[in-house]
Amino acid sequence: MLKWRTALMLFAALALPVSAHAYEAWRGPTGLLKHTEEKSFDGYTVLAPLGSTKTFLIDNDANIINVWESEYRNGSSAIMLPNGHLLRGSTLPREEIAVPFGGFAGLLEEFDWEGNKVWELKVNSRKGVFHHGMQRLPNGNTMVIAWEYKTREEAIAKGRNPETLGKMSINDPNWPVEKPVEGFWPDAIFEFDPSGKIVWEWHVWDHVGTGPDQWDINYLAPYHVEGPYGAGPDWTHFNALEYNPETDQILLSSNKFSEIYLIDRKTGKMTWRFGNPAAYGQGRAPGGRGDDGDQILFGQHNPSFLPNGNISVFDNGSFRPQGARSRVVEIDPRTNRIVWQFHTRQVRTPNSFYTPFQGSAQKLANGNYLVCSTLHGHLFEVTPEKEVVWDFVNPVSAKGPICFIEDDTNSIWVHRAYRYAKDFPGFKGRDMSPRGRLNPGCPDFRPLLESRPKF
Q: Environment class of residue 332 by beta-carbon count within 10 Å: exposed (0-12), middle (13-18) or buried (19+)?
């Protein structure tokens, strides 16, 4: 315990001068860091560390309730189904994937409560490579986002400027920059029935243009063309989808355009867009350091429909000219106004939640938000009054549980996290007793954190 107290004292000494940004700028403890029971939403959280082949269901005290294991690492997200099954995206080996842009997966797997695989769907060819987003629909079908291959000649014929076509756009240090990506990979949405047959599809390729309901094939983010925002072969980079059966609309997010959209499923047309009016010529683009222009979102992820008609989104804030910072925002699509937001400057714990990529924000039934900051596997729950009432850092790494983060490492990344109420149908009749801790052998850091001097 003494070595952890020493490490935590060092962490506190380093953290205090930089206030809310401390945790993700320095080192820190893992596991459960805070739990205010009377204010936190009581339920079970699905935890899918990207460096692990295991997916966990944990309670609010970070005890393991269930665990599912695959031969593949977690890829994108994992969700509970009403029958108690787990549906997860899984990452195929790099040498098998058709194109390894950031967020690739290639495989969906469904496991029953006992851990048996009962269904899988491989979407990994030039016709489509599954990545990021998936949803099990009320009719039992599964909807996914996929990259589809187009030749260089097809892209140029569609209007693409050949001078920008070849720019690299893979946010992956393991992919050599000097190795060109063949062709052009716009996004598509596919709905598969349980047999794996495509029963409905939508292609951004069919909606190319410069109008307010189209995607400009030559749009390039003006401030960082060759980075993860650069519109090279991974042109739109959709990173989330959600289908609303009541309105028959699909909610999409494009990292490269820094926009979210509503798509009418029946007509296939875009009916609403938000985040970056310069992408379709209706606003001023960022003008350089300190000037955001008319752009509101920056590399956002995980938009979701809310019961009140609003839309929530995790705005990463990466490459924001006014300064990179992540935030959770709630938008009224009827007025295009942000009605609530929570950002790093408002965190009152030693943890920040800036992540330049991935991340999620789930509005819970009590009005709180469960936030996932991918870069450091940081999950926390915040109230509408902006009080953090549950705080957790994923201790599950590719090498096993770790007690203290020593450096930046992708082995504890968590793409998204979802919490389910205790009365969720999939839990009925299940054994929900704790099965142990995620980080056995690690101390409970909460008493040490609570005893830190207050400044």
A: middle
Whether 244 maps to a domain, the answer reads yes
In a domain, residue 366? The reply is: yes
pTM (predicted TM-score): 0.90
Q: What are the two backbone dihedrals, phi and then psi, of residue 161, each rounded to the nearest 5 degrees?
A: -70, 115
Contact 303, 251 (CB under 8 A): yes
DSSP letters for 303-334? EEE-TTS-EEEEE--TT-TT----EEEEEETT
Token pair 């380093």 is at which residue? Answer: 14
CA 203 vs CA 53, 145, 188, 303: distances in Å: 32, 10, 4, 20
As to burial, measured by CB atoms within 10 angstroms (0-12 exposed, 13-18 middle, 19+ buried), residue 206 is: exposed
List the one residue out of 281, 282, 286, 326 whose CA is nearest residue 302: 326
Residue appearing with tokens 């993700």: 24
Which domain range does residue 48 map to? 2-450
Query: What pLDDT is attached to residue 352?
Result: 65
Q: How many CA atoms lie within 13 A of 408 on its CB side?
A: 6
> What are the tens digits of pLDDT across the range 158-186?
999 988 886 554 444 444 444 557 789 99
- At position 239, the amino acid (one-letter code) is N
pLDDT band (50, 70, 90) for residue 247: very high
Indicate which CATH number applies to the domain containing 283. Answer: 2.120.10.30
Helix (H, G, I), strand (E, B) or coil at 418: strand
